[in-house]
C-alpha cells in the first residue's frame, strides 16, 4: 500500500509540477499532462483514499487519518465521502432514500422504487454526461450541499464540528484549485481557454471512469432493490443484503484490480470493509465457497466492459419500467 500510494500520488502530482514550472508551450502536451494527472486522481481516490477513509489502509488510526487527506488533495471531501459512502451506502446499499449513491436528481433514476418521470426514458442516452461531470460536481458545490444535508440529518452535531468541517472543505478546495488550475493559468504560456479545456478534460475522463467503477457494482440486473418494512427495517439480515445488492466484475484482471483498489471485488469489500483491498482476491475464494454453502447469491461479471454493458441495460430498463408499489 505504501508503494501504491507513492505511485498514485506521483502520477497525480508530477504533471502539475511540470505544468507549474512554466516550461510547457505545447497544447497537446498540456492536455496529455492533465489526462495523466486524471489517471492519478482516479488511482488516489479509489486505491488510496478509499481504504484510508474506511480505516483499512493501516491498523494505525493516525496513519489512516493522514492518508485520508489524499482524498481532499484531489479536490473532494474525505468527511463528506465518509458519511455518504461508509455510513449511508455501506449500511443501506440499494435502499431508496437511504443509500446516498442512488439518491439522484429527478432526471436520473437508479432504483425501480424511485418515482418515474417521462424524461427517464432517455436517461440511457444522457447519463454518461452526468457520470463524466461527477468529479466536477465534487470540486464545486456538491460537497457543500451534502455536508449541510448531513448536518440536518443529525451528523456533525458536536460543538463547532459542522463549522470546522465546512472551513476544512473550503481550505482544501482552495489548495486544489491553486495548483490544478490557477497557477497553470498564470505560468503556462498558452491561451487561457486551452488550460481550462484541459482541466475540464481531466475531470470528464476521471469522472466517467470513477462513476462506472462504482455504479456497475450495484445498478445491475442481478442486484436487488429491497424495500424496508412498515417499521423501516430491512427484511433480510445484513450479510444477505450485501450479497443480494452487490456484484463483482473482472475477477481475473490483476493490474486493473491493482489500479482501482480492488473495487472489482465489491462483494468482499461490502462484507469486509475494514480489510485492506490487497487481500480481496484471496478472500474471494473463501467468500465464494461460503456463499455456496449457505445458498447466497454471488454475482460476478467476467470483464469490466461486460459489467458496463449490463449496467447500461439496467439504466435503460429503469428508465422505462414503472415504479414498484410498496
Describe the structure.
It is built from 13 helices and 2 strands. It is globular and about 60 Å long. It has one domain (2-320). The mean pLDDT is 95. The chain is mainly α.
Structural class: mainly alpha
Helices and strands, in order, run as HHHHHHHHHEHHHEH
In the sheet with the most strands, the strands line up as 1-2
Instruction: State mean pLDDT (0 to 100 scale).
Output: 95
User: How many structural domains in the coordinates?
Assistant: 1
Shape: globular
What ranges have pLDDT less than 50 throughout 5 or more consecutive residues?
A: none
The helix count comes to 13
Residues in helices, as a percent range: 55-70%
Percent of sequence in beta strands: under 5%
Cα end-to-end separation: 45 Å
Quaternary status: single chain
How many β strands by DSSP?
2
Q: From the alpha carbons, calculate the radius of gyration and give it in angstroms.
A: 20 Å
Biggest sheet layout: 2 strands, parallel
Amino acid at each position: 500500500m505504501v508503494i501504491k500510494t507513492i505511485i498514485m500520488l506521483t502520477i497525480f502530482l508530477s504533471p502539475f509540477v511540470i505544468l507549474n514550472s512554466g516550461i510547457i508551450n505545447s497544447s497537446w502536451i498540456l492536455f496529455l499532462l492533465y489526462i495523466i494527472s486524471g489517471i492519478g486522481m482516479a488511482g488516489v481516490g479509489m486505491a488510496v483514499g478509499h481504504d484510508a477513509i474506511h480505516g483499512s489502509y493501516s491498523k494505525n488510526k493516525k496513519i489512516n487519518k493522514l492518508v485520508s487527506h489524499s482524498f481532499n488533495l484531489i479536490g473532494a471531501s474525505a468527511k463528506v465521502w465518509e458519511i455518504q459512502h461508509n455510513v449511508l451506502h455501506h449500511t443501506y446499499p440499494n435502499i431508496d432514500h437511504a443509500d446516498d449513491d442512488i439518491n439522484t436528481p429527478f432526471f436520473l433514476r437508479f432504483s425501480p422504487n424511485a418515482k418515474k418521470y417521462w424524461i427517464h426514458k432517455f436517461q440511457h442516452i444522457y447519463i454518461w454526461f452526468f457520470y463524466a461531470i461527477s468529479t466536477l460536481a465534487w470540486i464545486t458545490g456538491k460537497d457543500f450541499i451534502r455536508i449541510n444535508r448531513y448536518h440536518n440529518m443529525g451528523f456533525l452535531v458536536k460543538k463547532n464540528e459542522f463549522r470546522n468541517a465546512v472551513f476544512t472543505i473550503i481550505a482544501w478546495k482552495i489548495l486544489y484549485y491553486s495548483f490544478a488550475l490557477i497557477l497553470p493559468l498564470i505560468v503556462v504560456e498558452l491561451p487561457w481557454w486551452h488550460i481550462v479545456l484541459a482541466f475540464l478534460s481531466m475531470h470528464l475522463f476521471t469522472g466517467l471512469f470513477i462513476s462506472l467503477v462504482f455504479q456497475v457494482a450495484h445498478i445491475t440486473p442481478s442486484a436487488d432493490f429491497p424495500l424496508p418494512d412498515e417499521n423501516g427495517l430491512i427484511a433480510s439480515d445484513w450479510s444477505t443484503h450485501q450479497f443480494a445488492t452487490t456484484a463483482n466484475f473482472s475477477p481475473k484482471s490483476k493490474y486493473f484490480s491493482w489500479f482501482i483498489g480492488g473495487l472489482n471485488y465489491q462483494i468482499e469489500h461490502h462484507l469486509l470493509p475494514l480489510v485492506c483491498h490487497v487481500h480481496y482476491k484471496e478472500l474471494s475464494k473463501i467468500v465464494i465457497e461460503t456463499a455456496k454453502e449457505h445458498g447466497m447469491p454471488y454475482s460476478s461479471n467476467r470483464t469490466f466492459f461486460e459489467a458496463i454493458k449490463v449496467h447500461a441495460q439496467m439504466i435503460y430498463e429503469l428508465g422505462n419500467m414503472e415504479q414498484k408499489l410498496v
